[in-house]
Design a protein that fits this description.
This is Phosphate/phosphite/phosphonate ABC transporter substrate-binding protein. Helix content is 33%, strand content 21%. It has 329 residues and is an alpha/beta fold. The protein has two domains: 183 residues, D-Maltodextrin-Binding Protein, domain 2 (3-Layer(aba) Sandwich); 133 residues, 3-Layer(aba) Sandwich (D-Maltodextrin-Binding Protein, domain 2). The protein starts with 9 loop residues before the first helix and ends with a helix.
Length: 329
């Protein structure tokens, strides 16, 4: 377990999320062997997989059902899932023994390891990339674009953001002063931490200089801009594709005008209550699942994941430092 940047007041971070009220029979730290015993920990009778929606959570459990069914068959242990409305709640659920597998954003992966000794085993790849930028979106390109927007795959970008790699266009973000801005909760790297830090580094007081419009998920941020409820929104790149099916013109009405520094991808953490042998089996099962066409398609439908790869836990320190810079301790 690495030295904590949050140790002095970890509870302050967790305060942004309520504890998941998941009742899990026969699956707690009480299954572990006593420390003075050489007997291995008994496998639990069932396992809970915690999901944190990056889009509207309706239907997410149904979408994830093939994954939990696969894990149940491969492990010989019943695997169910629960959807948290809050990033931090999933971390607390793992710490309380209410969930044993967490699909978590990068900051929460770091926290689960740092505070509860969860093992970070896998990180996601999306189209071969292991990092991604947060994006600034607007419905008012005349104000924020210093050049003519260009189109990629039906989506408009300006200020060099069409390079699809951060950072880009950050010289333009000081224009956000005075605007209504769709913002996710403080636990979201792409929906809060990185763009808010970028605005502060550009000289804005993010409490006084912008009107924050709270949203619950990345697709909600896109729709807030699309519908005119906010002039600017934050999200991961490129959350516009999530809503394109229902709003085909989203890529024309919502223009990406800046992107932050790259953020480590989300991934999978496993509870320390699980034996090392079972952790290895779960890790292999998930990685194998992601390497099949069917598994990749299902993971894409859940989290836009194209592949799960071995994790580099040290890569998560950068997002922890960004959170610390915002006082999220």
């Amino acid at each position: 377990m690495r030295t904590s940047l949050f140790r002095s007041s970890a509870a302050g971070v967790i305060a942004v999320g309520a504890l998941l009220t998941v009742v899990l029979a026969g699956c707690s730290s009480s299954t572990a062997a006593p420390e003075d015993s050489a007997a291995p920990a008994a496998d639990p009778e069932s396992i809970v997989l915690a999901l944190v929606p990056s889009q509207d959570q309706d239907g997410l459990v149904d979408t994830a059902a093939p994954l939990t069914d696969y894990l149940t068959e491969e492990l010989g242990i019943e695997v169910t899932d629960v959807v948290s409305k809050d990033y931090q709640a999933a971390v607390e659920a793992m710490g309380a023994g209410q969930a044993q597998i967490g699909f978590l954003p990068s900051l929460q992966l770091w926290q689960a390891n740092d505070m509860y000794d969860a093992k970070v085993v896998l990180q996601t790849e999306r189209n071969g990339n292991i990092t991604y930028p947060a994006q600034f979106m607007t419905n008012n390109p005349d104000k924020y674009c210093d050049d003519e927007p260009v189109e990629r795959d039906g989506m408009l970008f300006c200020n060099g953001a069409d390079a699809l790699k951060g950072p880009a266009g950050l010289d333009s973000i000081d224009k956000v002063k005075g605007a209504k801005v769709a913002v996710l909760g403080p636990g979201s790297p792409a929906g809060y931490i990185y763009p808010i830090l970028a605005l502060q580094e550009a000289g804005l007081d993010t409490d006084a200089d912008i009107q924050q419009i709270p949203v619950t998920a990345n697709d909600a941020s896109v729709l807030a801009v699309y519908n005119g409820d906010a002039e600017v929104g934050f999200s991961f790149w490129d959350a516009r594709t999530i809503v394109a099916k229902d709003t085909p013109d989203v890529g024309q009405k919502v223009v990406v005008f800046a992107m932050t520094e790259e953020i480590p991808n989300d991934g999978v953490a496993l509870s320390s209550d699980l034996s090392p042998e079972l952790q290895d089996r779960i890790t292999k099962a998930l990685e194998d699942f992601s390497n099949t066409p069917e598994g990749s398609e299902i993971l894409t439908s859940i989290y836009s994941i194209t592949k799960l790869a071995p994790a580099d836990p040290d890569s998560l320190d950068v997002v922890a430092r960004a959170a610390q810079a915002l006082g999220l301790q």
